[in-house]
């Protein structure tokens, strides 16, 4: 059994505070906050199941386990073009990911798969890494909310 040195979940919402002070443009002021549950298997080893990633559109969220045999997964969500903010449950996002495993020399990139998903839909990405074998990443957008990033409307930031 591999030892766990640390498990880190970075929440993209912390980055949102920076955006609140730097973005004031109306066209960019409404973004989605998504909860994406992810499961990862590398080789025959299940690394995690249904781990929650909190994503602000365009900002990364990361889950990592350091130490030999560990992993790191980074996910970024981008709204697909030509979709308005008015139809909350019908638009799709492309989820871009980077999957690493931890070796003696640090993190090694296994792949950078992406997938398009709608709200409440589940997707599965299978790929083969030369160094780690079969990699399976399952993703599902389970929650979403609008977030106002225009700092002039800070009092009504999340609805």
Q: Name the overall outline.
A: elongated
Which spans have pLDDT < 50 for at least 5 consecutive residues? Answer: 1-27
- Secondary structure tally: strands: 10
Q: Using only CA atoms, what is the Rg?
A: 17 Å
* Main beta-sheet strand count, sense and barrel state: 6 strands, antiparallel
Domain module tally: 1
Describe this structure in words.
- The chain has one helix and ten strands.
- The chain has 159 residues and is mostly beta strands.
- The protein has one domain.
- Strands 1, 4, 5, 6, 7 and 8 form a six-stranded antiparallel beta sheet that branches. Strands 3-2-10-9 form a four-stranded antiparallel beta sheet.
- Strand 9 and strand 10 form a beta hairpin.
- The longest helix is centred in the first third of the chain and has 10 residues.
